[in-house]
Amino acid sequence: MWDAIYPYVAALLPTIGLLVIAYVVFKTIFEADRKERIAQAQWEREQERAASADRNDPPSE
């Protein structure tokens, strides 16, 4: 029985392995992109807050 199943398993195993690798790689890329977008938005908010604080401060003379 194993002799009948082995060729199919041998043919499908590399494809399944590549799918798993591709899934992990794409998941990592998308998660890194999501984290980078969050960090970028946070940085932009901080820069905007700092700029508005600079505009609201009276000149010190």
Q: How would you describe this protein?
A:
The chain is mostly helical and 61 residues long. It has one domain (1-52). It is 90% helix and 0% strand. It has one helix at residues 2-56. The longest helix has 55 residues, at 2-56. The model has no long low-confidence stretch (mean pLDDT 92).
Sequence stretches where pLDDT stays below 50 over 5 or more residues:
none
Note the overall shape: rod-shaped
Gyration radius, in Å: 27 Å
Order of H and E elements: H
How much strand? Answer: under 5%
Our count of helices gives 1
Counted up, domains total 1
Helix-strand layout with pairing:
Layout: H1 2-56
Question: Descriptors for this entry?
Answer:
61 residues, mainly alpha, 1 helix
Précis, in short:
By secondary structure, this protein is an all-alpha fold. It is built from one helix and no strands. The N and C termini lie far apart (92 Å).
